[in-house]
Amino acid sequence: MTEKFTDYLSDNAREASINHLNISLATGIQLQLALKQAHWNIKGPSFIGIHELLDEVRARMDEHVDVIAERIVILGGTADGTLEGVEKNGKLEGYPRDAVHQDTHIEALKSRMVQFVSLVHEGLKEVGDAGDEETADLYTAVSRGVSKDAWFIGAHHTQAKK
Questions:
Q1: Where do the Ferritin/DPS domain residues begin and end (predicted)?
Q2: What 3-state class would DSSP assign to 43?
Q3: Which structural domains are found in the chain, ordered by start?
Q4: How confident is the model over 101-123, as a mean pLDDT?
Q5: CB 106 within 8 A of CB 157
Q6: DSSP tag of 95
Q7: What is the model's pTM?
Q8: Distance between CA 149 and CA 79 in Å, rounded?
Q9: Cα 150 to Cα 112: distance, rounded to the nearest angstrom
Q10: Which pLDDT value is given to residue 160?
């Protein structure tokens, strides 16, 4: 570990948090890329609204990923946002390259966002049990934000029922 700025945490708590945060970082980067892929390629009756929404969601996801990476460094770790780190630690399936219709993108994004939130909740429990309440708070904020954005995106599905 490099220099740490959290003397109040045990080495075990710090290591548990760094490990889970790096998985969240890699998975968050995968989600960032999926959002951009959809933004560039989406077509359908709600194109412009969704196209613009995806830029807003991507900007918020950028903030979440940045906070996660900064927390890793604060804890004395190295934030691994390299291509190799994302391939090794990311938990999302590859994004469908041939997706075009808005419903296909909406479903692909929504499911990945929900999966990311589930991963964040696992981390929240793990780091909380290890005694790192600040990282647990970070995960709570990320979960709240990504869940809300999943709802915003999911609401655009043209097959929504009454």
A1: 18-160
A2: strand
A3: 11-89+99-154 (1.20.1260.10)
A4: 96
A5: yes
A6: P
A7: 0.94
A8: 25
A9: 9
A10: 56
> What is the DSSP code string of 21-36?
HHHHHHHHHHHHHHHH
Average pLDDT over residues 34-51: 95
Residues 31 and 117: beta-carbon distance below 8 Å: no
Query: Measured on CA atoms in the order 51, 63, 27, 132, is the torsion positive or negative?
Result: negative
Residue 1 has a pLDDT of 59
Convert the pLDDT of each residue in 4-20 to its tens digit: 788 889 999 999 999 99
With vertex at residue 120, the alpha carbon angle to CA 116 and CA 121, rounded to the nearest 5 degrees, is 120
Distance between CA 128 and CA 137 in Å, rounded? 9
Residue owning tokens 């708590």:
13
The pLDDT of 51-80, averaged and rounded, is 98
- What pLDDT does 139 receive? 98
What value does the mean pLDDT of the chain take? 94
Collect all residues with Cβ–Cβ distance below 8 Å to 33 and sequence separation of at least 6.
95
Q: Which two tokens mark 57? A: 């969601």
